[in-house]
Write a structure and sequence with these properties.
- Helix content is about 35%, strand content about 15%.
- By secondary structure, it is an alpha/beta fold.
- The protein has 3 domains: about 260 residues, NAD(P)-binding Rossmann-like Domain (Rossmann fold); about 180 residues, Orthogonal Bundle (Arc Repressor Mutant, subunit A), CATH 1.10.10; about 110 residues, Ubiquitin-like 2 activating enzyme e1b. Chain:  B, domain 3 (Structural Genomics Hypothetical 15.5 Kd Protein In mrcA-pckA Intergenic Region, Chain A, Roll).
- The chain binds adenosine-5'-triphosphate (ATP) and zinc ion.
- The site of adenosine-5'-triphosphate (ATP) has 21 residues, from helix 2 and strand 2.
- Keywords: ATP-binding, Metal-binding, Nucleotide-binding, Ubl conjugation pathway, Zinc.
């Protein structure tokens, strides 16, 4: 492809996210002659970003990622005009008109909600989107455009795994159960919003005031009391339920004296940087023994309880992560499950596969290749590329031709979404929080039931309206005014901020098996053909037969790229290999 330098310089590019991929992307865009770049990131620079987000230095910690990225790129590319904003792309001001002001949008994000939001706005604004992602050694770049090809949401993305609440609360048998208990249940119960219902609000806990700090109680005393309940008397209570232990090993209660919390142990060491450091536990890869976990638990709890509630869990918040590690390991001690180091627990709590800088760099290069095709009006030449962990036929890069729009996609093809739930138990609050926001990433939902509005979001609602919708949140679907939302009801859902409208059909199902469907609802109508799954399959099946070859081959035969070995791969080849896989 002949590159038109003037066109590249003129092209208006929006790069969303200035993290691992974003930094590489900005550098590559600038070095390829893009001069009209907007970058946006909501976050500030954290020490943990410095190993791979090379536009940032230690002195930048705490500063805006987007602004520092701009400053660093301007140093080696002063001709560029870079507009940098520290903002959340979901803000209302970044609307359809805003997106229309770009020739192409490039995503370097790390979460599904933001990716979906950008996808919806790109569809509305009819701007092509280059979407990307990396997990460790694997990565992918895909291209989306209204009508001509599949949108980002035409393929269903795997939903995060949820665990049955009874397993988490009473019968864990894997480290992940203990980590999820610590992070989702106990952390939220102790430090989260006091008004939120919790699965830990069992009768005995409420009666004993187990999670409530008493008037005048020190943080340390409170923590010890929580310890005695959670890891001691609660477990003793469970041991009385004989049926529970017929086919399982019985748990062992812990006592404060048994783990060395009695008498002398009172300190929270407020001067220390975090709870574990207060106890001299400096190696993040070491596995703490039970007594060390108990001490970290007490100190972390005593520190966190002094903060203003609600505290939300953040894996980069040291006290929070140390609390989670300690709780998880103490529960593991109860249940005979292997303990984890802080490092491993952090990986599990943050669903982290550690980032590989090289993968981010390769993916960013691929994004720019696709962006170049788009701004040269060669949308037909754009394609998906998967970066494989193991070479396939000697190649680490796997090109695939783009998918067609999926007629079942609710986002680009207006298809109806089906919600299956027990309408006598599922509340309107569940519908909004778990289904619309949680599963479908609708940012600011409005819901119409027949001719009446049952939900609205926005700063301009008056108090009465907010109260009215909150009262409805507590009702089950079948008890909503106007005859109730029952089997076959169709709701109209709308999100103005995403220019996204769809119909939601409700199907009632009486019986739910908590083990298999812990969420208590199913979404149907999405085509299960995850692009991730395709990449996964490519990696696994072909790794088996592939001979080892560590040459990284870049398979673009049209764009001149130096310093990288090139191989020829035309679209027919790509199609053939895709068919084979299917
Ligand atoms: N809604 C959003 N609006 C703007 N930027 C976002 C939004 N969601 C995520 N981001 C940004 O996308 C970037 C993704 O980068 P990356 O995956 O490297 O994450 P990170 O937070 O830098 O690193 P890590 O998660 O590994 O600590 C982050 O800088 C993050 O702040
Ligand atoms: Zn779609």
């Amino acid at each position: 492809m002949e590159i038109d330098r003037a066109r590249v310089a003129r092209a208006r590019v929006l790069a969303v996210g200035a993290g691992g991929i974003g930094c590489e992307l900005l550098k590559t865009l600038a070095l390829h002659g893009f001069e009209n770049i907007t970058t946006m990131d909501l976050d500030t620079i954290d020490v943990s970003n410095l190993n791979r987000q090379f536009l940032f230095r230690k002195r930048h910690v705490g500063m805006s990622k987007a602004e520092v990225a701009r400053e660093s790129v301007m140093k080696f590319q002063p001709r560029a005009t870079i507009d940098a904003t520290r903002a959340n792309v979901k803000e209302a001001r970044f609307d359809k008109e805003y997106f229309k002001s770009f020739d192409v949008v490039l995503n370097g994000l790390d979460n599904l909600e933001a990716r979906r939001h950008v996808n919806r706005l790109c569809l509305a604004a009819e701007v092509p989107l280059v979407e990307s992602g990396t997990t460790g050694y694997k990565g992918q770049v895909t291209v989306h455009e209204r009508r001509t090809c599949a949108c980002f949401e035409c393929t269903e993305k795997p939903t995060p795994k949820s665990y049955p609440i009874c397993t988490l609360r009473d019968t864990p048998d894997k480290p992940i159960h203990c980590v999820v208990y610590a992070k989702e249940l106990l952390f939220s119960k102790l430090f989260g919003d006091v008004n939120t219902e919790s699965d830990l609000d069992e009768q005995e806990a409420i009666e004993a005031g187990a999670f409530r700090r008493n008037e005048g109680e020190t943080g340390t005393d409170f923590a010890k009391r929580v310890f005695a309940y959670v890891f001691g008397s609660k477990i003793e209570g469970l041991l009385l339920k004989d049926d529970m232990w017929k086919s399982r090993a019985k748990p062992t209660p812990l006592t404060t004296s048994g783990v060395g919390l009695d008498g002398a142990f009172t300190e929270t060491l407020p001067d220390a940087k975090s709870a574990r450091r207060a106890h001299g536990l400096l190696d993040t890869h070491a596995v703490w023994n039970t007594s060390e976990c108990a001490k970290v638990f007490v100190s972390a709890t005593a520190r966190l309880i002094e903060r203003e509630r609600p505290v939300t869990f953040d894996k980069d918040d040291d006290d929070a992560m140390e609390f989670v590690t300690a709780v998880s390991n103490l529960r593991s001690a109860n249940y005979g499950i292997p303990a984890q180091s802080l490092f491993d627990a952090k990986g599990m709590a943050g669903n982290i596969v550690h980032a590989v800088a090289t993968t981010n760099a390769i993916v960013s290069g691929l994004i720019v290749i696709e962006a170049l095709k788009i701004i040269h009006n060669q949308m037909d030449k754009t394609r998906y590329t998967f970066v494989l962990e193991h070479p396939s036929n000697g190649r680490f890069l796997q090109p695939l031709s783009k998918e067609d729009p999926n007629p079942k996609c609710s986002v680009c093809s207006n298809a109806r979404v089906e919600l299956v739930c027990n309408t006598n138990k599922f509340t309107k609050g569940d519908l909004i929080k778990k289904v619309l926001k949680g599963r479908l990433s609708v940012h600011a939902p409005s819901v119409m039931f027949g001719s009446s509005q049952i939900h609205e979001t926005g700063d301009d609602l008056d108090e009465d309206e907010v109260e009215h919708y909150e009262a409805l949140d507590k009702r089950t679907l079948s008890a909503l005014p106007g005859g109730g939302v029952v089997n076959g009801t169709i709701l109209a859902v709308d999100d103005f901020s995403q220019e996204f409208t769809f119909e939601l059909m409700v199907t009632h199902r009486e019986e739910w098996d908590e083990e298999n469907d812990p969420d208590g609802f199913i979404i149907r109508g999405e085509d299960v053909k995850a692009s991730e799954a395709v990449a996964e399959e490519a990696t696994e099946t072909e790794a088996a037969g592939a001979k080892d070859d560590d040459e990284v081959l870049l398979m673009d035969d049209e764009i001149e790229i130096t310093d990288v070995k090139r191989a020829r791969e035309d679209d027919d080849d790509a199609k053939a290999s895709k068919k084979q896989r299917a």
